């Protein structure tokens, strides 16, 4: 058995053998930081991506939901991979391989035209539905407080300041739309000048502006031209000052805590920088 497929559970291997008999492993795309296995395989001249979650995985179910309910505006244009097989119970899915070069780490990462296309694609996703949630902000605040209660390396004095700020926030109703949840160049591909999208494990109903969170602290911070191009493609700026600040703080806490738990020191340092930026902006 291929050592990559050996990382799958017996049930997952059974499904892969049924769905793609005699498939050959071509490349392991797994990160290694989390328990998700992502492997490129070939069978009968076609290429596929097999994505399988570990026992504690909560992403495969969300990814399957996105494929089945929200991705048609992209898949209908060839801008996202097509789902071939999936099992939420077994935490595994198979999609057609989407051709392209990953934007992250390439010259495309600094191309305003790529960011403009990314804005256009995101607008298609967000436009599909909108619901009002009275308790979204309260629940998100509780998640941030729980992260502060858990393991991290945020200084105690900073934790106290964050708790004080969160305690003073309003919790107004929020408008939620389908969001990607990790919208940034590491999940964009370019093929023959056209941008497409992968990885929907964090897809969920959230405020539209939450999909700008990763870009704002990385790409937009690096080059304002990318922000201008992205918003030109998207059509408007969805960020309202108060809600955007609250989201930035939550993202900063979540980044620092999550990165510490998985041992990603570079990303953890980014989280600490994000926290410092947020507190500075709030005048704390």
TrEMBL record:
Database matches in InterPro entries: Aminoglycoside_PTrfase (IPR002575), Kinase-like_dom_sf (IPR011009)
MF (Gene Ontology): kinase activity
Gene3D superfamilies registered for this protein in UniProt: 3.90.1200.10
Swiss-Prot/TrEMBL keywords: Kinase, Transferase
Transferase is among the record's keywords: yes
Superkingdom classification of source: Bacteria
Domain Aminoglycoside phosphotransferase, first and last residues per copy: 81-243
SUPFAM superfamilies listed in its UniProt record: Protein kinase-like (PK-like)
Protein name as catalogued: Thiamine kinase-like enzyme
Organism per entry: Pseudosporangium ferrugineum
């Amino acid at each position: 058995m291929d050592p990559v497929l050996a990382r799958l559970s017996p049930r997952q291997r059974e499904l892969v053998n049924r769905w793609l008999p005699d498939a050959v492993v071509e490349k392991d795309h797994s990160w290694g930081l989390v328990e998700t296995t992502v492997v490129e395989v070939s069978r009968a001249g076609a290429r596929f991506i097999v994505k399988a979650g570990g026992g504690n995985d909560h992403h495969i179910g969300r990814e399957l939901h996105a494929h089945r309910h929200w991705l048609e505006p992209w898949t209908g244009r060839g801008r996202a991979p097509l789902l071939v097989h999936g099992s939420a119970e077994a935490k595994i899915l198979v999609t057609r391989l989407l051709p392209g070069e990953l934007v992250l780490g390439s010259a495309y990462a600094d191309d305003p035209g790529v960011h403009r296309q990314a804005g256009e694609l995101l607008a298609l996703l967000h436009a599909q539905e909108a619901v009002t949630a009275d308790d979204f902000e309260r629940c998100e605040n509780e998640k941030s407080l729980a992260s502060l209660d858990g393991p991290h390396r945020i200084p105690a004095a900073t934790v106290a300041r964050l708790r004080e700020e969160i305690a003073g926030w309003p919790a107004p109703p929020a408008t939620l739309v389908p969001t990607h949840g990790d919208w940034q160049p590491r999940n964009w591909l370019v093929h023959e000048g056209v941008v497409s999208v992968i990885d929907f494990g964090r897809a969920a109903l959230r405020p539209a502006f939450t999909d700008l969170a990763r870009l704002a602290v990385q790409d937009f911070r690096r080059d304002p031209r990318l922000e201008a191009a992205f918003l030109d493609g998207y059509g408007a700026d969805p960020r309202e000052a108060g809600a955007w600040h609250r989201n930035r703080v939550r993202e900063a806490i979540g980044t620092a805590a999550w990165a510490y738990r998985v041992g990603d020191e570079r990303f953890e340092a980014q989280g600490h920088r994000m926290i410092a930026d947020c507190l500075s902006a709030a005048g704390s």
